[in-house]
Structures are given as structure tokens and as C-alpha cells.
Amino acid sequence: MVRLQDENLTRRQVVRAGAAAAALTQALGVRGGTLAQSGTPTPASDGLVEIEAESTPGAASEGELSGTIIIAFQGNDTQTFQALADAYMEKHPGVDVRVELKPTEGYQEFIRSQFASGVPEASLVNGNVVADLIQADKFVDLSAYLDRTNPYTGAPWRDSMDEISVANMRDPVSGEMYLLNLETVQVLWFYNATAFANAGILEEAQALANTEKNQPTWDQFLDWCHRLREAGYIPVAIEGDFRSFWELRFGWLARMYLDQFTRDEAPLVRAQPGDWNFREGIDDVWEYDPSDPHNDDATRVTFNTQRQMIALRDHQQAVNGPPFQALYTNFKEFSDHCTPPGWIGTTDAYPLFLTQQAAIRLDVAALLTTFEKDIRSLAEGTYTPAGAVAEGEPEATPLPGQDVSVFELGSFNNPTMEGDQVDAPARTIEVNIGFYSVPAKTQTQNDLEVDFLMFLTSPEGFGIYLQNRVDPENPNGGIAGPPIVKDVQLPEEIAERFSQLKLIGNTEKPTAGNYRARGVADYQPSVREWVDLAQQYFSDQIGLQEFLDSYQASIDRLFPEILEHMQLTEGDLETPEKKPASQD
């Protein structure tokens, strides 16, 4: 259990956390990597770890570079990226670094518009929202730079980062790397210890926390929700709008829990002997083992997307059979008994948790670094609800200040569903994040932009990043989790909080069947139709089988468009052993 100091808050400079994600401290170590640390830093009086910021031998000399770099990530932490920009421009007076962060709403469209207008102006974006453009070679393959010297460390760029993490960023077949992920994330459930005590379930939850996985069963979790409701609490604070279903909390649930029901599809859609992406020494020795949470890691097995699309087309990977029936029966119980009243369509349920009306919050481990800040924000009247900006309004209106106080947090991992259709225990999202990408331009311009990334991944650059992200005066700060950048470390208190969490396995990777968890492969028309149908189902407008049959019909109707979205053709499906022409 994480103990946070109780305090009544009325007046303080507050910090509202950004949309960061987080992870536990030893995540990389479990996968075979380590977090390099520079000795034993002593926290300063403000709680930050002092990080040396001297230029290393071999660092780029001042003035040798020129041009413009535009940082256009989604988010609102201008302080951090402006600090990085200022430090970089001090080294390179000939470079103009402009910080032009973008809101999450409409971000995908913003990136697409960059390419539609010709050569993109933006230098650094979050490329994970436009996978089709990455596949179409619209972004720089960062693997080409890994062996180049990082001028801010004097060593190959790959040596600036954890080796295993770098390997996980690269395509297991081609070795290409289009997304740079510098922090780690774990999704788990946080609870109010006082609420659990009042419901008579705190001792049970604390005993579970001492087990290897800290993971209840689904039925145990539903019982907790029932007892919390009897004690007068809303069991779980969760949103039910489109963004929640696609990108956030219910979308996480859809992806994480379909994994329990589709692990056995791996032999059907894995690369077969003779396939273009079949890897000798890896795929020829792989055996299906659902008891091993790493059995379907990219280092163990390769999936063939063409075979997945064949299985989807031919209903071998259907969405209206017994596995989906069992999954959505469980989800309906969750909707009926655990969520806030009228949760479908709600955009921000977090204040229900902060005000202790709701007892549980599904979130990322970054909550351990931002919880007190969010409480203060709500107390001071600076908390801005998510999705609260009305059309035509310049900015969202903060909620009025409320009488709230910090309370004790506990946590548990994803409750594991059980039954005849379940293949394996529940896993979660445990993965490196950041998704920094560089739109392809001229070689000179791209070299400049990657040089900035090299500075960011140096101890000096990432030290600036960390100090600003955890700065209590940063109105939009919050660290996602332990960095993969070597020779830096988190403040001791934050690292200790992360270290208490436990790994259960990652689902946020290419798996056998999760690509159809909430729409198919992020194709937006498919996503939107699934969201609409799921919301109707949870609102009792349609029954279970009508929902699933309609979802299957949606996929069948949209299949030609889905195939085009994935840059595949029917000819590619006729010869899954051959590499698709779009990937040549």
C-alpha cells in the first residue's frame, strides 16, 4: 500500500497532471534490462534529484547547427519542452526551437494535415496515432541513427538508452524503428483505503497485495463493487464517452481483456514455415504456452498480418461467437454494478474519485506522482474537467474549489476473468511509451531533428526533462515512469512508489487477436461503429447477441476499407507467404 500524507487543502500553487502514463521501477529489469543510475544522487531540499548538466567530452560544439525545430507533441506541458528548447538553443545559437504543443482532440487530423499540405512543418510528433502513415514511410526510420555517435555523450546513440527497450522499439523482422519511447507504463486499479475499510474489504485487499501478482479474480472484484455500493460508494470512477472507449479506460479494458479469450488463436495467425517474415531460430522453436505471459512477445514469435486478415475475413477470428459472448457478459455486469449512474457519455469521472464519492479508479501508475497535485487542483478551483471545452470556447472552465483532502491509496492488478472460454490469466498494459516520431523531410533537416532527440536522450537533456516534469510548480507536469535513458534516475520517493507494483505481463503489443478488440486496427469508421454499438448494449438499447452480430456485420461490410487502411490487397491475402508489395 502506498501511504500519502493526509492534509486539508485550501490555498496552494497546484499542479494538474498531464495525460502521462507510468510503470513500476523494475519493469525493464524483468525483461532483461536494467536502469542505469549515476551513483547515489542526494535529493535536494525541493525533493528533486540533482543531475549533473555538464556537456560531455565530444559534445556538439556551439553554433555548428542551424535551422528550425518545431516540437508538436500532444499535451500541454510547455514548461518541460521549453526548458529543453532553451538549453538546446544555448548550445546551438543558429537553431530556432519552437514549442507548439497540440491538444489531444483532433491530434490525428493535425498530423495528417501536415502531410496533406506537402512537406510537414512539424519536427517532432507522436506518431502512434497514424500507424498507416508510418507504414507508408512518411516518418524517419530512427534505427539508421542508432550506431551514429551521440554528440552529447560521445558514444553510439543506442548506448544512451536501455538495450532491451531499444530492441522492443524495433520491428522484429526489419529492425526499423519509427517510435522513440523513453518512459514506461503500467495500467492498474487504485482504491481509496478508507472506502475499502468502510466496506469491510480492506484486509482482503491488503492480503492480496502480499501475493505474487496482487490480482483478484473477476468474481472477487464484482463482490468488492457490490460491498462498496452497499457502503454508499460508487464502486469505480470511469468515463463512457467516445474517447474512453477508443483511447482510454474502457478501450484499455477491451484490449486487455480480449487478450484472455484469444491467446489460443496464436497458432492460427503466427508466421508459418515459408512465410516472408518467418524467423529461423525463433518461429521454428516456438510452442504455444498460455501459462507464460511472455509466450507471445515479439522476441518469441512472429504474427503474420495477412493471415490475421484472412482469419478475420473468413470468420475464423469472429467477433460474435462464444469468447466474445463470455467477455461482454462480464463487461455488462461491470457496467451494471460498478460504474457511476449514467456513465455512458460521461467525459471525466476522476473528480468522483478525488472527492471520495467513488472508491476505485482504473489508471496508469503515474497517478502515484500526480495524485496529491490533482487533489490540490480540485481544492484550489483550478481542476479543468476533461472534455469540458464547448465549441467556440477558448478554454475549459475549471471546477469550483472543493473541500477535499489527500487519502491513502492502495492498488491491485487487473482482476482475472475465469470460465470455459478463458485461455490465460489477465495481463495488463506494461510497455515503454512516448511515441516520439520524426516526419520525413530533407536529410539535413531530419539530421537536425534527430540531433535534438540525441540531446534529449543524454543525461544532460533528460535531466532537464525530469526536473521539469516533477517540478511542483509545473502546472502540467507528472512523470510517466522510470526512464530508459541511462545515467539518470527518478527522485527517491517516486521510485519507491513505483517499486511496490508488480508485473503480470503485457498486452500492448502485436498479439493474436487483440487487433479487433474495439474496432479493427484503429480504422476510425470501424472504431466508431463499435463504440456506438457497445454504448447501445451497455445502455440496454440492444441485447448481447444483437450487439455482437451487428459488430460482425460492421466488420464484414467495412472489410475492403480495413484492408486498404492496412495497405494490403486481396492479392496479398492469396499469398500470405509473400511480402506485401506495400512493404517493399
- The shape, in one word, is globular
Indicate the structural class: alpha+beta
The gyration radius over C-alpha positions equals 24 Å
Q: What do the pLDDT scores average to?
A: 88
Compute the number of strand runs: 11
Strand content: 5-15%
Oligomer: single chain
Quote the CATH topology of the domain at 30-184 and 433-490: D-Maltodextrin-Binding Protein, domain 2
Q: Mind describing the biggest β-sheet? A: 5 strands, mixed
Helix content: 25-40%
The CATH level-2 architecture of the domain at 30-184 and 433-490 is identified as 3-Layer(aba) Sandwich
Helix run count: 21
Describe the structure.
The protein has helices at residues 27-30, 78-91, 107-116, 131-135, 163-169, 193-198, 202-209, 218-230, 242-246, 249-262, 266-269, 305-313, 322-337, 350-354, 367-380, 443-456, 459-469, 492-499, 524-538, 544-565, 570-574, and strands at 67-71, 95-99, 125-126, 149-150, 155-156, 183-192, 234-236, 358-364, 409-412, 430-433, 436-437. The protein has 584 residues and is an alpha+beta fold. It has a domain at 30-184 and 433-490: 3-Layer(aba) Sandwich (D-Maltodextrin-Binding Protein, domain 2), CATH 3.40.190. The strands form 4 sheets. Strands 6, 7, 8, 9 and 10 form a 5-stranded mixed sheet that branches. It has a two-stranded parallel sheet with strand order 1-2. Strands 3-11 form a two-stranded antiparallel ribbon. Strand 1 (67-71), helix 2 and strand 2 (95-99) form a beta-alpha-beta unit. Helix 2 packs antiparallel against helix 17 (459-469), helix 8 runs parallel beside helix 13 and helix 19 runs antiparallel to helix 20 (544-565). The longest helix is centred in the last third of the chain and has 22 residues, at 544-565. The chain is globular, with a radius of gyration of 24 Å. The protein starts with 26 loop residues before the first helix and ends in a 10-residue tail after the last helix. Residues 2-63 have low confidence and may be disordered.
